[in-house]
Write a structure and sequence with these properties.
By secondary structure, the chain is of the alpha/beta class. It has helices at about 45-55, 70-80, 125, 130-135, 145-160, 175-180, 190-195, 205-215, 255-265, 270-285, 300-310; strands at about 5-10, 15-20, 35-40, 60-65, 85-90, 95-105, 110-115, 140, 165, 185, 220-225, 230-235, 240. The chain is globular and about 50 Å long. It binds alpha-D-ribofuranose.
Length: about 300
Amino acid sequence: MAQTKPVVVVVGSSNTDMVVKCDRLPHPGQTVTGGKFVVAAGGKGANQAVAAARLGAHVVFVARVGTDSFGQEALRGYEAEGIDTQFVVRDPDDHTGVALIMVDASGENMIAVASGANHRLTAADVRRAESVIARAGVVLVQLEIPWEAVRTAVKLAYEHSVPVILNPAPAVPLDDDLLSRVSYLTPNESEAEGLTGIRVVDEATADQAAEALLKRGVRHVIITLGARGAFLATQERKLLIPAFKVNAVDTTAAGDAFNGALAVALARGLSLEAAIEFSAKAGAVSVTRMGAQPSLPREDEIAEFSAERVA
Ligand code: RIB
C-alpha cells in the first residue's frame, strides 16, 4: 500500500535569483569580471517548500508573488513540483521578489533581496490557510516575510498543537512570546549570534548560544555550523551531529535544503537525531550544485549519497 505523504505547510518568500558565479566576491566599489550568469528560482520559503516536496511531503505553500513573468514562472515551477499553490496570492501591486546573488570559487555567497510582493504577505493571508495548518504534520516558517505573517503562522500552529520550525533567516530580533511557541529553532552561526549576542565560532560557543535560546522558551535549538555540522540542544541533551564532507560549488540554499528536509523527517516521525542526519545529507548534496532550487535533492539522490558514504 502506498505510504501517505506527510503534510508540510510552508509560510514564506518566493524570489527569482539572479546569480553571478565568479572567482572572488568584490569589495564595495570594486568590479569583478569573468563571471558566469544563471537565473534560478529561489526565496527561502520557496526553496524550503521545494526541498520538502522533492523529499516526499505534500507541501502547501503560503506566499505572495507578483503578476509579472517571474511570478508566473515561479508558480509554474511550484505546480510542476506538485506543491499546492492555492494560498499563493498573485499580487498586482508589487513585483515578485528578486535576489541578486554572487557566489565565489569556494561556494560562499553574498545576497541582496528586493522583497516586492513578499513584503505584502499579511496575517489574513496566513489565516486563510488555518484549516490546512491545523492538520499539517509540520509548519515551516522563515523571516523573509512581514513579522505579522510570521507571528500568525507560529501562533496558529501552536494553537492547533502542530510542531513549528522557525528558520530565523535572515536574522531579526525575536521576542520571547514568539520563541516560546516555536518547537524547533534553526539558526546558522551568524543568526544565532544575532539572536543571542554570542559569537558562534565552535561547539562551545554554539552550546552557550543554544542555552540562551532554550532559556527564552524554545523547545529544540538546532544551530547549523556549516562544514562542522549541526548542534542540537534541548533541556535534556546537547550534541553535535557532524556534517558530511563534500566539495562545495554553491552554498546558496544549503540551509533551505536542511530545513525542508527536517520538516519532512519530523513529519514522518523520525527521531530528532535521525531527522538532523537526513537534513545534513540534503544540505550536503545541495552545496555540490549551482543555484537555489536547481540544487535541492530528491529522495533517491539522498539514498544514493548515503549509499556512497557506506560503500
Ligand atoms: O536561502 C537562499 C535564498 O535566500 C535565495 O534563494 C535568495 O532568494 C534569498 O532569499
